[in-house]
């Protein structure tokens, strides 16, 4: 079965720095934070458009998901979790910074059915990170 991603863009939301190589507003064409209802609508729109069965994954991209306040994370995760529980989607994933992960955050993500956390590790060299304004 083909895997398809339902991208939910949160450009620059949660990012503590503005890296020189990153302009998520331009890359995604989105600004601001989607509402839980927008997440619900996007999931419904993508899944209704498929002509063949797919392994759907909701993916929160474009910011540092786990650096957002917990209640904001939960608001965005709730509609995805409902779709996961209903069998509409098969997985939930997010992208974040490696310094924005704690055992408590991982526990929250697991409670909402998160299956993959993509860590944006641009370099292991502090000098490179400093020059890129990565923090």
In CATH terms, the superfamily is Aldolase class I
How many domain regions? 1
CATH T-level topology: TIM Barrel
Which shape, going by the Cα principal axes? globular
Task: Give a short summary of the structure.
The protein has 135 residues and is of the alpha/beta class. It contains five helices and four strands, in the order βααβαβαβα.
Descriptive report:
This protein is an alpha/beta fold and 135 residues long. It has one domain (2-131): Aldolase class I (TIM Barrel). It is built from five helices and four strands, in the order βααβαβαβα. The longest helix has 17 residues, at 70-86. The chain starts with a strand and ends with a helix. The model has no long low-confidence stretch (mean pLDDT 82).
Task: List its salient traits.
alpha/beta, TIM Barrel, 5 helices, 135 residues, globular, four-stranded parallel sheet
Protein topology:
Elements: E1 2-9, H1 24-28, H2 36-49, E2 54-61, H3 70-86, E3 91-96, H4 103-111, E4 114-119, H5 126-131
Parallel strand pairs: 1-2, 2-3, 3-4
């Amino acid at each position: 079965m083909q895997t398809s991603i339902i991208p939910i863009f949160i450009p620059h939301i949660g990012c503590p720095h503005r890296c020189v190589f990153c302009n998520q507003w331009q890359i995604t064409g989105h600004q601001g934070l989607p509402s839980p209802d927008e997440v619900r609508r996007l999931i419904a729109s993508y899944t209704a458009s498929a002509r063949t069965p797919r392994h759907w994954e909701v993916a929160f991209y474009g910011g540092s998901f786990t650096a957002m306040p917990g209640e904001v994370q939960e608001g965005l995760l709730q509609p995805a979790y409902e779709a996961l529980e209903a069998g509409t989607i098969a997985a939930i994933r997010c992208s974040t910074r490696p310094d924005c992960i704690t055992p408590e955050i991982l526990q929250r993500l697991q409670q909402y059915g998160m299956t993959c956390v993509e860590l944006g590790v641009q370099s292991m060299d502090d000098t490179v990170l400093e020059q890129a304004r990565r923090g």
